[in-house]
Every structure is written in structure tokens, then in C-alpha cells.
Amino acid sequence: MTDAVPKPDVPSSMYEYIGVADAEAWADARTVEAEAVDWAALNDAAANDVEHAAEVFSKGPAGALLREAARANAEAVCEALLKNELVVSDEEMQAALRVAVEAQSEVAAAVLVQGGADPNDQLDSGIRLLHHAANTGADGVVDALLQGDAYVHQRDDDEYTPLHRAVMADAEATARRLLDAGADVQMRTVEGRSALHLAVVHNAADVIPALIDGGARPNQKDDAGYTPLHRAVEHDAQDALRALLDHGADPHRRDEGGRTALHAAIEHENESALRLLLERDVDTKTTDDQGRPPLHRAVEMGAAALVELLLDHGVDAYQRDEHGDAPLHRAARADAAAACTLLMEHGVDPHRRGAQGRTPLHEAATAGAHAAMQALLDHDADPHTTDDEDLMPLHLAVDTDQADVVEALLDAGADPHRRDREGRTALHRAVDGRATAVIPVLLRGGADAETADQSGYSPLHKAAYRDDTEVLNVLLEGGLDPNMTDSAGRTPAHAAAQADAADALQGLLDKGATATQLSEAGYAPLHIAANQNATAALKTLLAHGLEPNATNKDGRTPAHTAAQSDAAEALNILLENDADPDVTDERGWRPLHVAAGANAVDTLRILLDTDSPLHTEHDNDFTPLHVAASSNAVEALHVLLEAEAIPDVESHLSGQTPLHAAAYANQAGAIAVLLEAGADPNATDQDGETPLYKAAEKDAEAAITALLKAEPDLEAAEAQYGRTPLHIAVWSNAATALEQLLNAGANPDAHDTAFNRTALHMAASLNADMLVHTLLDHGADPEIEDEHGQTALHSAVDNEAHDALVRLLEAGAAPNATDADGQTPLHGAAQHNLGDATAALLDYGADPNLHNSDGYTPLHVAARLDAATAAELLLDDEADPDADSAALGRTPLYVAIWNDAKEVATLLLNHGADPNRPDDSFERTPLHIAARNNATELVALLLKHGADPNQGDDADATPLHSAASDHAVDAVEQLLESGADANASDFEQRTPLHAAASSNDPEILRLLLEAGADVHATDDEQQTPLHVAAWYDAADAARVLLEAGATLEVTDATFGRTPLHSAVWSDAIDTLTVLLEHDADVHATDTSGRTPLHVAADDNSEKAIQLLLKHGANPATPTDAGETPLDLVSDASSKAARRLKRAR
């Protein structure tokens, strides 16, 4: 080891630099005067000779010198002082570090930290060294502290980390150094804010990029649920806001209230932020958790500047919130008149509907928003628009008792008479809601106070009914008539009496109401009060002097109505005021009858105590006991019987006992009471009906059960038809009663006396399937015949009772039973075209070929009525399609054709019916009938199935003869096309041409002639068709025949007459004219030498004579007997004679 090099003497300047005279002075010093130190020189000297400097420094107050060197950032001085660990204490070194940090002496701080000073120390103020350095943006100091392992996440007394402090100071470089050293960018303050939130709050825009670069999430929410963007808007931190948007912050992120930054800008009325966000094209349609888009919230707040900014940006002014409301609705509801005006000036329609179909005017009315309403009305908003519930703004304004709003709407023309769905006008709603402020406004505005709602009540009636004197007085002070009537003729006094509203009633009387007026139902307020046991109202009315025995239109007094509702207190009050307990109404009912029927025991006893008579009948023939029995008023019955009412008392008109009345009304309780009191269960009324009959008629199960306990006569028959209770039970379709009677032993085969019908006949005719089943189960005989010989099966068919029919067949009823007319049930089914019934009968063995007394089978019956459904079923079951009817020998096909039954005819032919089978009377075939009737479809059908068009009847007339004689043009054409002989002759040798000539049918004549008919054909008297036409004055036919070459000169075989003779003979003037026009020979003579003029003279036919003479007939020509025409005139003075004389 070498010897230490001796140090040179300390230059005297070292002390001078320290600010003392010499070493001794330095040694005596207790502190250092920082202002006296030449720090630059001292630091240089220490740097040049550290060892010597350390030795010098150690001789004096080294700790003080270290503090001041730290403050002066004198690096070399600090290093020299720390050279010897014994020179300064740890505490002095920490104090020096605190000074260095406060003085932002980064070099000194670094030396001190490297020398062992604790970088996690705190200042005297309690602030940690790193926090202080970060807060002041002393990034060099921060760096020095971090190199000494300063705790980067340590929190100060305010719970801030160094990074938080750097952020609040907007110290970007410091923040980055801290982040580089591992500072957690996500650490939150006690308020739950991240470093990025702090940056925003302090508008520290410079540090924001550093934070985001260091991992800060720009969209992260603080503990209150706000993103940095929301906080930037809240604190109007415009620079921060831009920085966030520039570095990826999402403006559409929502806070805990579902609001975006745009919502926040509006919420805080931050116009600058709103403009900035709009410039960034943020979504303006997004809604918050309350379903509000930004514009809705702006108008709701009345923030006109923001509204205008949004509208200018093109925001949708009609966008709806989650309730279906547009911005104008929100503005109206918030009474934001300026916003309303602004929206409408931007073209928003004030009539656009929102939630519940309401317009902005509705919303303003609901909210009582007078200013907004006026703005809307000023822009022509329609006050009559109704919402989805048919309510106008006026209705809604009334509901909230907003007088100024109501007045504004009325001034704008709102109709006060418009009704809501319950039929209420605005005035009704005001009364219902006790909106006393708006009632006078409505009345002044013309509201009709007499208009009734759906209950029939006017507003005044309603107030009276509710005993609402406050509303009542407001209405009456408005000039309303206290005696107004509703649609039922009720006054407000009626309504008050109904509700026992004595105060309202007194108020009405004080205002001049008359309490004697009858409603349309015939009741005065006194009747109503009595009926409702409204004692307070009753006393008020009687005190007003009203007559206690006043009658309504039915003659009923208040005592009647009190008795009806068992209003005992009211009845006593009436009796105390001289009400008559025995007064009768127009039907003869006394209060006692009314009380008995209502089972009003209390009022009944009160009336019996007045000695009201027990057995007096009312006009409906009932005593009080009858009335109580029919109403099952058991308690009343006991009271009446205890008062010695007779249990079998008969009514004078019908002879019914109370037991009849109870049975008919199914009142088992009343029956038991009466039977116990000795009532006769077999008593009959004037129609011979017993109580059991009455009960069976009404299917009164309980009544029958009660009566059967008394073992009544089950077979007792009534007088008119001889029907037993069993009959009437079936007739009334009383299934339960039927079962009860049969189980009790009633005879199921008992006949009535009027029609000899059993209950089974009745049940079948009614298609009462279950009743039929019940009767059969109890042994009813299905083969018993009624007075017409019909069984129950016939009845079922005749009444189209299919269910009953099947039930009877299943029980073995004879399907071929015949009635007095020989009709089987199958005949009836065919007659009614009942397919189901026909099928059922056939399934159970009904014979389809049986004849009735007219000789008809069921198939004949079906054919007559074109009952195709039944016919098809019969044919499918081998019914004979060619069966003859007994009388005329007609087949079903013949009958079908005769009755134009096309469907059945088709079925018959398809099932092999003979189309050429003639009847027995005239031997006419079906084709004869069809042809004669011009039934073209049937003609075609028959021809298609082989009908012979040339088959003759018993007179040898073919179908063509029949058609030609009956103007059946279409049939003639069909027959000719099918080969019918146009020259066929009947037994008189007449052809179809003769037939057509006789019927004067030129169209048929032409058809026949075209088909080759011989115009010269003669019958057995040698008469041609022209003779026939002449005889029948068939002028049109004569023309056609002549055009076809008919001969005018041909004569018949009997008299040798020409057609001209025939025309004259039958005085056929029209045909005579035609023949003469065709140059018929007027001089032709018959076998007697008579000319046509002779014939005309003999017939004294002046018209024929005139025509013949005109055409050259000779009046002097004699007959073979020498007679001239004049000789044959029977009356020489006749016109015919005179004309002949002149012609000579």
C-alpha cells in the first residue's frame, strides 16, 4: 500500500466561495447564507478537487451546506459533501433531497438519491417527493427519483398517484416518464376517475395522447358511469374534447343513463361541445335510456340555441322517442314555447301524431302548458284533433283543471260538445274530475249543460248524484236549470234521491227545483228515495211538503217502491207521514204483493202489522201468497202462512194455486213450504193442469223433485188435448223432467186425446234424439199409430228429424210401416229429398218398391219432386226404374219428365229406365211429354238414351205431332235432327204439318217443310194443311204454306170444299184475306154447288161477303138447288143482305 499523497492546502478562495473569511469562521458557522455563496465557483472548485472540497466542507455545517447546494443544484458540492459518509447525517441528506425536489434541482436530486437519500420521502407539507415533482412537471427530478426506485404507484394524502398529479398539471413529458416507469394508467382516484378522466376534468389536452399511448382506454367509464368524453362535455373542456376525439374516443358510447356525448352536451347546455360533436358527424338519432333522442332533450329543456343548432345541422325533426313522440310533442309538454316556435318555423307539422295518437296540442293541454299551447295555436294547430282514445286537447286540459288552457282552446274554436268514448263532453269530464276552475270557463264558452253522457246524466245530474255541493253550486251559479231532465226524464233531484245525497237535494230545492216531476219510467224523486232506503233524502223531500201517496204512471206509491227493496226505514218514515199501506197500483198490486214477491220480510211484517188483507188478488190473478211462491220468497211464505194465509187459495181467473205458481217457476223451496202447509199436489187449474204439469212444461227439475215427494198423479191429463205431464215434458224438450217422470213410473205409451199421439211421436217430430232414447229405454213402443196411422218413424221423417229417425231404427222400429195413405217412411224421405233419412231407412231394410195408395213407389215420389239425392240412393238400392204406378201406369221416368225433373230423369236413364215405355192411359212416351213441353234438355237426354222419335201414342201421334201442335219450336228442331219423320201420320192421317198449321206456328211449319214435309199431304178427309190453316184462321201458317206451293183448288173428300170454303165457313177473315190475295178461286163450288159466297151468306158474315164481292164473287150464281147467295141470308134486313142486293 502506498502512502497517501498529501493534499495541498485548501485555497483561501474555497472559504470565500462559501461566504466565510477562513477555516475558523467556517468551523464556527452554524448555518450557510445561501445568498453569500458563489455557487458556480464553489461547484467548479469542488469538481476540480473533490477530496479537498470534502475535507473543507466537513469542517463546518456540512448539513446546512448540503441543503443549500441541493437548492442551488450544485452537483459537485453535493457529491463532495456525500464523499464522506460521516460528514452529513441521513436526516440532513433527506432534508437536502426535499429541498432539491422543491427547487426542481434535478442534478442535485440525482446525486442525493444516488447517495442514498430516500426518494419516497415526503415534503413538510405531506406531499410525496415524486407527487410534487410530477405536479410541477419537473420531469428531470421525476427521473432522478425514479432512478432511486421511487414508488410510482404511491398515493398521496389526497389519494392521487404521481401520474394523477402529472396529468392534472398537463405535464406530458412527466406523464410519459412515469408511464415508462410502469405507472398504472388505469389507477383511479377516490372519486373513481382514471388518469384520462382527470386530464379531461382539468382540460389537460397535451397529456391525453400520452395517456392513450400508455394504455388508457378512451371510452372507459369512471365509477359514476361517465366516459372521458362525457366529462369533457360536462366541464366544457374543449381542448380535451378535441384531443379525445382525435385519439379514438367513441362519441356514441353511453353513460349510465344511456346518454351519448351529444346528449351530455345538451344536458349541460354546452353549445361549443355540441357544435364540435356535430362537426364530427356523430349520430343524432341515438336515444338515451328514456328513449329520448338529443333533439327531444334539447326541446324539453327549452334550450332554443341548441335546438336551432341541431335543426340547422339537419337533425330529423320528426324522429320519435320510445313513446312515439316527436320533438314538438316534448316541447309542448315542457311548455317550451320558444322551442315549439322554432320547430314549426323549421317546417314541423303541428298535427303530426305521437304516442296514443296525440298531437303536440294534446301534450300541451295535458301538461297545462299555456305558452306552448298558444304557440301551437298561433301556427294553426287544430284544436279538434282527437287522439286514439277520441279525446280532444280540450278534454285533457279539463282533466287537469287548467282554466287558462281551456279558455285558449275555446277561443281557438274547440268544440265543447265533442264527446269522448264514454259519451262525455268536456263539461262532463270537468264534473267527474271536480275541475271547478274550468266549469265556469266552459259554460261561458257555450258548453251545453243539458247534454247527457252514456248514463243519461247531464253534468248537473252527476254532481247531484255524487252529493258534490261544490261542483253543484258552481254549475247552478252558471245559470243551469235545476229542473232540467235527462233522456230518461230524470231531474237532478232524482239523481240526488237515488244516491241519498241530502245536501245536494236541499241545494237543488233551495234553487227552485220541483221534486214532483216524474221520470219517463214513472218515478218521482220520492219514489226513488223510498226504493233506495235513502232516508236522509226521503226526510228532506217530505219536509218540503211532498205527498207521501203520490203515484207514478203505473199507479205505484213510494210505499210500493220501499216494499220492493225491503227498505224498512223508508217505509216506516212514509207510514209515519200518512202513507196508505193498502193503495193499489194500476195492476192491482198492493205494497203487500210487492213485498211478498221481493221476499222483503221486514217491509212485509210492517205491512201485515197495518192489517193489510192477505187474500186480495191483483190484476194478474195472484194473491200475495202466489207472488211469494212464484218468486221462491221462502221467508215471505213463512211470514204469510204464519199470518194465516190459505195454502190452496185459488186465483179467480186461472184457478191456479200458489203451488202451480211455484212449480211453473221451478221454486223448490216454495213448494216444500206449501206442501208442508198442506197444499194439494193434484190441484188443477181451469185448464186441468196440475202443478206437476206446469213443472214438466218448464223442465223444472227442482220443482218436480219437490212435487214427486208428495206422490202426485203422474197420468193426470190437461183438458184441451188430453196431454199428461209426460207429453208436455217432451213437447217442451224437457229432458230432465222426462227422465224424472219416467223414473217415477209415468206411462211412456200414454196417448193424448186430440191426436192419439204418444210422447214418442212428439219426441220424433221434434228430432229430440235424447228424448227418444230416454223413452225407448223406458219401454216406449215405436209401432203405436196416431190418428193418421203414422208411427213415430213417420213423424221423424215428416219433420226431417234425422237423429230421432236413426235412434228409432236402431231400436227396431219397422221401416216399412204404412200410414192411412199407404205411405211408408221411405215415401216421406223421398218426398222431402232427405238423403240421410233415405240411406238410413234403406240400411235398415226399407223396401224401395212398395206402392202407396196412389200407386206410387218412393222413386215415383222422388221423380215428381226432382228429389235427386233420394232418387240416387233408391236406384243404388235396386229400386225399379220402370215400376208402373197403379192408376195410370206411369213409370218414374214418365213422372220425372212430366214434372221437368231433369236430375232425376238423368239418374233414371243412367240406371236403365226404358225411355220408350208409354203410360197406360194415352200410350204416350216420355218423349211425347218432353216434346210437347219444349223441354229441350229432357228431349236431348231422352234421345241420347234411345228414345224413338217416331213412336206413336194411342192416336198414332208421334212426339213431332205433339211438339208441332204446342209451339215447341226447339223440340221440333231437335226431333227432326234426330230422324223424326216429318210426314208421319196419326190415326186421322194428319201429319205434323197439319198440327203446326192448326196452331198457326209459321216457324215450325218452315222447319217441317225444310225437312221434307209434304205440303199437299191430306188427312183421312182429304184435307191439306192449308185446309186446316183456313179452318183455324191461321193466316201466318197459310202464307207459309202458300209460299211452299200449297194448292188453293184442292178440295176435301166430305164436302168438296176448297181452303177458301173452309176459311169462310169458320169466319176466318184474316186467312180469307190471305187466300184471296193469292187469287183463290171465288167461283169454286163444293159438292152442293155452293161457292164461298153462298157459305158466307148462309153464315150471315158481312165481312166475308164484302171481301168475296170485292174479289169478283158473283152474287147471282145459283147452287145445284137453284139458290143464290141472297136466298141463303137468314135476315133479309141485315147488312149482309143489303150488300148482296147492291151487288146485283
Count of extended strands: 0
How large a portion of the residues is in β-strands, by DSSP E? under 5%
Low-confidence stretches: 1-10
Question: Major β-sheet, in short?
Answer: none
Rg, please? 63 Å
What class, by secondary structure content? mainly alpha
Q: What is the second-level CATH architecture of the domain at 1082-1143?
A: Alpha Horseshoe
User: Quick one: CATH superfamily of the domain at 1082-1143?
Assistant: Ankyrin repeat-containing domain
Global morphology: elongated
Distance between the termini: 207 Å
What is the average per-residue confidence, as pLDDT, rounded to a whole number? 92
Pfam family, one: Ank
InterPro entries: Ankyrin_rpt (IPR002110), Ankyrin_rpt-contain_sf (IPR036770)
Region (Disordered): 1113-1144
Keywords: ANK repeat, Repeat
Q: What does this protein look like?
A:
The chain is 49% helix and 0% strand. It contains 70 helices and no strands. The chain has 1144 residues and is an all-alpha fold. Helix 21 (327-333) runs parallel beside helix 23 (360-367) and helix 26 runs parallel beside helix 28 (438-444). The chain has a domain at 1082-1143: Serine Threonine Protein Phosphatase 5, Tetratricopeptide repeat, CATH 1.25.40.20. The model is unreliable at 1-10 (pLDDT under 50).
